[in-house]
Each structure stands twice: as C-alpha cells, then as structure tokens.
Amino acid sequence: MGSRMQRLFAPRALAAASFAALALFSGGASAALFEDDEARRAILDLRQRMEAQRLDAARQLDELRRENAQMRQGVLELQRQIEGLRQEIARMTGQNEQLVREVSELQRRQRDLAQGIDERIRRIEPSKVTVDGKEFIADPNESQSFEAALAVFRKGDFAAAQAGFTEFIRRYPQSGFRPTALFWLGNAQYANRDYKGAIGNFRELLRTAPDHPRAPEALLSIANCQIELKDNPGARRTLDELVKTYPQSEAAVAAKERLSRVR
To answer: N or C terminus of the chain: which is more exposed, having fewer CB within 10 Å?
Structure first.
C-alpha cells in the first residue's frame, strides 16, 4: 500500500518540484533581466553625459582656439603698430635732429646778424664816453678822431699830434672832448716850442671849462710856458692863481715848490 502510494504520488511530487524549480528559475531570470536593463540605462546615461561633456569640451576648445587665433592676430597687429611707431619715432627723431641743426644755424645767423647790426650801430650811434672824469655823449667818428690824435701824441710825434688836435677842435667845436683836446693840443705846442700858442689854448680851456680836472694842470703848464719865454713875473702870477684857485690839487703842490725858485 505504501509503495503504491509512493508510486502514485511520485510523479505528482516530481511535477510539483519541477514547477517550483521552474517558478524559482523564472523569478531569478526576471530579476537578472531587470538588473541588466538598469545597467544598460546607466551606461547609456553615462555615455550620454560623457558625450555631452566631450562635446562641451570640444566646443570650449574650439572657442579657446579661436580666441588664441584672435589674440595672435591682435599681437601681430600690435607688433606691426609698434614697428610703425618705431619707424615714425625714428623719422621724427631724424626730423627733430634736422630741426635742431636748422634752429641752431638760424640762431647762429641771428647772433651774427645782431652783432653786425650792433657793430654798425656802434659805428654811427652816439654813446656815452668818460674822459678825465667827465661823462658825455659822442658819436663814434668823434671818439675815433680824438683817440687817433692822442695815440699820435703818445708816440712822440708832436707835430702830427698838434695838427690832429687842431683839426679835431675845428670839426667838433661843441664836443665833450674839447677841453681835453685843448689840453693835449697845448702840450703838443709846448713840445714844439710854440709857447704862445700853447698859452692861448690852455687859457681857452680855463675860460670854457674852469671846473675841468685838467684845469689846474693847464695853469701849471701856462706857468711853464711863461718861464720858457723868460716871463718870470707872469709865471709867479700864474702860480699864485693856481694855488688860490685850486688849493687841493696836486698841481698846486707843484706850484708852491716852483714859486720858491721863480724870481
């Protein structure tokens, strides 16, 4: 009985076991299939993100390349501009150097011209001169004529000096040089032994310029001329006049000494 029951239920048990195993296998397969789909979706999603990142990186790289190309172009343009500026500066520097040379040359010419004009003006324009402590205005020709006559006197050519001072006084009767010219004319005449002529010119100096620095010397020279003419009384009167009129002068000191010798 038991064996038969076993034979009877054995196929059913086997079938049940087979069904259970099939059910178990089917459930595991479904779970595995589900997991594979999730993995695929994850992989696909990952691939999509990576592709998006790659495309974004490629886009950024392209932008960087374009920017780099633009920067290179800008640098090249800047270099061209700098080179152009250098050339312009070099050109302007050359022009400036040329301008400096031209300005310098113009300034030199201007100085030369100004000096030439000043020289011509000095030759014709009256100017202040000081002779024997007296200041006055004289034109260049007047000064030159006086200096020429005085230079001849200093060389010892008294005849030429007498002629030179005589001509000067004739040409410039109102000159500020006139009192001094009369003094040196009288001295030239004294050296030439023209004592009377010398006395006349010394007296003219005293008459027209009694306050002139040469006036005391003129009186002393008159006394010397009178002594040469053997006019000792006249010489004494002249020496007395000198001491009284110009007591503080050096000529007055000399006059006092001579008075003791003139009889």
So the answer is: N
CB 259 within 8 Å of CB 219:
no
The top-level CATH class assigned to 127-259 is mainly alpha
Under DSSP, the state recorded for 93 is H
| Residue 35 token pair | 């997991």
Write out the two tokens for 56.
């974004």
CA pair distance 15, 12, nearest whole angstrom: 5
Please name every residue paired with 137 in a beta bridge, in sequence order, or none if there are none.
128
pTM of the model as a whole: 0.57
All structural domains of the chain with their residue ranges: 1-95, 127-259
Task: Using alpha carbons, list the distances in angstroms from residue 2 to 7, 12, 13, 16, 259.
Answer: 9, 16, 15, 20, 206
Contact 216, 246 (CB under 8 A): yes
pLDDT digits (tens, 9 = 90+) for 6-58: 554 454 554 455 554 444 445 555 556 667 788 888 888 888 887 888 888 78
